[in-house]
C-alpha cells in the first residue's frame, strides 16, 4: 500500500516542490502519527500535504503528550471545515473568503503586567524558538473533533521574553478585527475583536502552543494565519486565531463567547464529558472524516485525553461550577 497518494495529473509531486529534508521530516511525523495503526491506507489523503504553501520546517516535539496516536484528519477537512466567524458562520465560509486576510506584515503587541512589554514582528516570532511538529486532538464545543498536525512552539517561550511581574495571573489573547480584510466583522454575531483568555499557569503549560503552521506548511488563512493559539485540552473556541495582541493581566478577562452567553461558555471551558452544554451533551463526539452509516460516535475524554499532563492544574476545583 503506498504511503502517499499521487496528486492529480499535471500537479507536481510534493517531493518535487519541497526541500528533501522538510519532506523527510514530514514523513517521520506522519509515520509517528500512524503508530499503532495498520497503515495509512484510508488516510492516504490525510498524508498528502497540498504543497502549495511555504514549508515550515520543524523538529519532532519532545513535550509529553504532544504527539497523540490518533490518525490525522484529512488536510481537506482541516482546511475546509472551519470556525472563523470573522469570515462568516458557515463552516465553508473561511476557506472561501479568507483569501482577503493579509498575514504579512504582521506584529503582535505583548504588554500588561510584565517588565519588558513590546511589539514583536512576525519574522522575529518565527525564529524565537525551534519549530516543533505536534499532533493534537481538537474538540469543538459543537460536538465534533479533528486531529491536526500543528507546527509551532510553546507559548511559554514568548511569554517569558516579556518577563511577567508578580501581578500577572491571567493572559488575554486578542484577534485581528479588520472590516477591510474580514467580511464577518461587519456582522454583530460577536462583540469584536475576538477575545480569549487563560490563567497564567495554563498559558505557561508546555502543551499550550503558539502555532504558525499545519501539515508542515505555514498556516492557511482560514486556520488563523499567520499565528494562533492551540490549547488542546479546552474546547476549540479557546484557541484564538490571527492574534495581534497578548495582554498579561491581574484579573480574569472576559472572553468573547463568555460575554455573549456566560451560561453556555465558561472561562475555563476544559473539555469535560460530564459537564453538558445547556443545549447538547458533551459525552460523545463525531470525528470529522469518520462519518459513515455504521460509524459510532467516539466517547469524549476528560480534558480531551490530556488529563495526565494538565489534570493537576485544576486540583481542588469544582469543575461543574468553574466550567
Ligand atoms: N479569531 C477567532 N478564533 C477562533 C474562532 C473564531 O471564530 N475567531 N473559532 C474558534 C473555534 S469555535 C474553533 S472550533 C477553532 C477552529 O479552528 P480550525 O478552524 O483551525 O480547526 O478556532 C477557534 N478560534
Ligand atoms: Mo469550536
Automatic annotation (TrEMBL):
InterPro entries: MsrP, OxRdtase_Mopterin-bd_dom, OxRdtase_Mopterin-bd_sf. Keywords: Metal-binding, Molybdenum, Oxidoreductase, Signal. Its cofactor is Mo-molybdopterin. Residues 102-256 form the Oxidoreductase molybdopterin-binding domain. One of its GO terms (biological process) is protein repair. It catalyses: L-methionyl-[protein] + a quinone + H2O = L-methionyl-(R)-S-oxide-[protein] + a quinol; L-methionyl-[protein] + a quinone + H2O = L-methionyl-(S)-S-oxide-[protein] + a quinol. Signal peptide: none annotated. Mo-molybdopterin binds at residues 82, 85-86, 140, 175, 223, 228, 239-241. It holds the Pfam family Oxidored_molyb. GO terms for molecular function: metal ion binding; molybdopterin cofactor binding; oxidoreductase activity, acting on a sulfur group of donors, quinone or similar compound as acceptor. SUPFAM superfamilies: Oxidoreductase molybdopterin-binding domain. The keyword Oxidoreductase applies. The keyword Signal applies. Binds 1 Mo-molybdopterin (Mo-MPT) cofactor per subunit. Its EC number is 1.8.5.-. Part of the MsrPQ system that repairs oxidized periplasmic proteins containing methionine sulfoxide residues (Met-O), using respiratory chain electrons. Thus protects these proteins from oxidative-stress damage caused by reactive species of oxygen and chlorine generated by the host defense mechanisms. MsrPQ is essential for the maintenance of envelope integrity under bleach stress, rescuing a wide series of structurally unrelated periplasmic proteins from methionine oxidation. PANTHER family: PROTEIN-METHIONINE-SULFOXIDE REDUCTASE (PTHR43032), PROTEIN-METHIONINE-SULFOXIDE REDUCTASE CATALYTIC SUBUNIT MSRP (PTHR43032:SF3). Heterodimer of a catalytic subunit (MsrP) and a heme-binding subunit (MsrQ). Belongs to the MsrP family. This is Protein-methionine-sulfoxide reductase catalytic subunit MsrP. It comes from Ideonella livida.
